[in-house]
Amino acid sequence: MGKVADKYLKIDPWKIIEQGFEPEHGRVSESIFSLGNEYMGVRGYFDEGYSGDKLIGSYFNGVFEEGKAIPSGHYKGMVSRTTFMVNAVDWLYTRISIDGETLDIAKSHVEDFIRYLDMKKGILTRRFIWNTSSGKSVRISFERFLSMTNHTLGCQRISLEPLNFSGKANIRTALDFSIIHEMCGKNLWQCPKKGRQGDITAIIGKTVTSGHKLFSAFRIDVAPSRKMQLVEDSNFIGLDFVMDLKHGHKSGFDKIVTNYAEKNPNIGVDQIWSKGMKIAEEVISYNAAYDRQVEYWADTWANSDVAIEGDPENQQGIRYCIFQLHQTYHGQDPSLNIGAKGLTGEAYNGNAFWDTETYCLPFYIFNNPIAARNLLEYRYNTLPKAVERAKELDCQGAFYPIATLDGSETCALWQHASLQLQAGTGVAYGIWHYDKLLKDKAFIYNKGIEILIQVSRMLATRGQWGQKTGMFGFFAVMGPDEFQMMVNNNCYTNFMGKKTFEYTLKVINDMKTNAPAELSAISEKLKLNPQELENWKQMAQNMYIPFDNETKIYEQHDGFFNLPHIDIDSIPVKEFPLYHSWSYDRIYRNDMIKQPDVLMFMFLYNQDFSPEVKKANYNYYEPRCIHESSLSPSIHSILAMELGKKREAYDFFNFSTRLDLDNYNRNTAEGLHLTSIAAAWMNIVYGFGGMRSDGEILAFNPSLPQQWNGFNFRLIYNDSILNVEIGGESAEFKILKGNKQVIRIYDKEYKIDEQGIKVKLLK
Questions:
Q1: What separation in angstroms does the CA of 442 have from each of 374, 438, 446?
Q2: Tens-digit pLDDT profile for residues 102-120
Q3: Strands of 229-233's sheet, edge to edge?
Q4: Distance, CA of 2 to CA of 28 (rounded, Å)
Q5: Which residues, 6 or more positions from 459, have their beta carbon under 8 angstroms from its beta carbon?
Q6: Are residues 430 and 567 in the same domain?
Q7: In a 3-state reduction of DSSP, which class is residue 44?
């Protein structure tokens, strides 16, 4: 695949370790050492300031600024307003000076630099020795974490230990709203209020256009207490103080920060100040917050760990993926979603895409069911905006955006925003998958059904009947393979549309018996009529699914089989990514595909297809895929493993857990690939574990990569914790907590309890 690792981190099963600072890896490390707690995130930039290349990134989920996509007078349906997650307050701001020299790793002489992220605890630590120009040496330690139990809380601990002197250090610690948003090259904040109240120093920032507000406050714990001098500027407030340093002794301070975001522009500054101060006054100590952090992660790892024997690199890699998934989203707020880069960078503007329900949701279904529900709650909460978007595109129902922060379409590229229907069918799939595994009928019958009806209405009015075939389909669309634009009857789109119609009708039919009152209420609210249901039934039954009976291959879209062929191996590596080196229209003029399209729906609805059909389609489409999307390799790996192509499966998997750690795509500096990180988890559980969750019961066809001695993973299933351990010649399934469960292993059903069952691995 032409991807080469850029290795500079140390291998450790529970830590990400950078030993020695290399400026060329500076931005990559900022991304890798990012912290988050769903509510806020912060890149791994240096607390003390750094004059070298950097991206000081501090982000708050759902806090965005607005911009104009195109000038007035545009065509109907084209997006005129864009939103982007805005770079916010630098609450870690610190400056340290000794003898008039200010610490700056780009200029200062430092040694023994080490930075490590402890994934067991969720704590980031950095240490080094600073040798000043005056001959003084001091060991400095920085520690930070974002509380997973109190989402407004950020904690910083700094210590200094003089190694050859006693003296003084001048410290400035502050809250800085003057940070430049790099994607637009300017600062986007105003600060209408700031000040010091008791021992709390605070400031409010307000975005220039959207009117979102952010209250940020800190308290300093330092012993013995110090005289503090207030320092202010237009977008800045902080404290200056002096620390007495004693040779051989550590001195330091804790900075406890409260960040409270208010996205309603109608809430006034004084009201936010009052509420923010109340939150800040109730904040606990660093040590107490630290203890709660450690306890939270201990509980999380007890249910979510994936352990690999004999492959330390992928062991570190998969734990990093799991860590980032939990800290990026854990279901504390149903108004939030998962951006493609999480809270780690400005690329993709913080937007969530269609892959939330298809790639990320499975992880949460099996690791954090509350988070899984809240991801779907987000889609329900933003349903009104999807309804508005449908009207803009001359459709009824709800047209979910391909890229969004607040539920509105924010993608300025019309060919994506108007032609890609997979956000809506992805949401419907997510509800179906959630329903199948968690059986949360309260959600399905009260909220899920409303989404399904509105998405089905959109599909019914966006689709049309072909005059030659007499069948229903979708014309002028773009499927998951974004190298084919304005095509007719994209197979993925048609197949997923058919499934959406069928599932919507099934839920309505179930509600007639099990929830007639809820069905009556939703029918009245949406003015649902029997003719609509009959129309959807006819559309589903007559959906055109292009398929060659002789070859058993699904045609990706009308005419795909007749496109000029290109040997993707003949493309020079230097020309990737193609968007940067090929003219835009050239990409669309051949049968090269960007990422799985036909193979994607074969993964999502795996049990619908015979091994013969899956093999034929894999053999046809895999050689045509250049994997220009980071989402692509894991799906190919899962299917390759199912088809017995074990070497090929492992080759595709080989960089999935370490895509960002080893910077395979050379773009980790822009932020982490969160949905690809979720795909890495699926690659192990669905690939090597052979799990399939689209059938009537949970099924497994486990196998062991020859490069591993064994592996195990845990799943939350039917309120029980299922442990799967694969190694040697056997696979063991056991309930660690909860009730007996029925699962299928190698096409045979078993009742699994705390005693467990062991089966022989099939070769």
A1: 13, 11, 6
A2: 999 999 999 999 999 999 9
A3: 101-102, 94-98, 167-176, 236-245, 229-233
A4: 20
A5: 397, 421, 424, 425, 474, 497, 500, 501, 539
A6: yes
A7: coil
pTM, full prediction: 0.97
* pLDDT at res. 763: 80
- What tens digit of pLDDT does each residue of 397-445 get? 999 999 999 999 999 899 999 999 999 999 999 999 999 999 999 999 9
Classify residue 278: in a domain, yes or no. Answer: yes
Residue pair 304/327 in contact (Cβ under 8 Å)? The answer is: no
Give how many domains the chain has, as a whole number: 2
Tell me what pLDDT residue 75 has: 84
CATH of the domain at 669: 1.50.10.10
- Alpha carbons 17 and 115: distance in angstroms, whole number: 6
Same domain, yes or no: 332 and 477: yes
DSSP of 251-279, one letter per residue?
EEEEEEEEEEEE--TTS-HHHHHHHHHHH
Place of tokens 């890896």: 25
DSSP 8-state secondary structure symbol assigned to residue 219: E
Domain membership flag for residue 591:
yes
CATH (domain of 126): 2.70.98.40
In a domain, residue 594? The reply is yes
> In degrees, to the nearest 5, what angle opens at C-alpha 657 toward C-alphas 576 and 342?
80
Domain membership of residue 191 (yes or no) is yes
Neighbours of 572 (CB within 10 A): 8
Positions in the chain short of pLDDT 50: none
Q: Which residues of 391-471 form beta strands (DSSP E)?
A: 464-465
Residue written as token pair 């805005």: 86
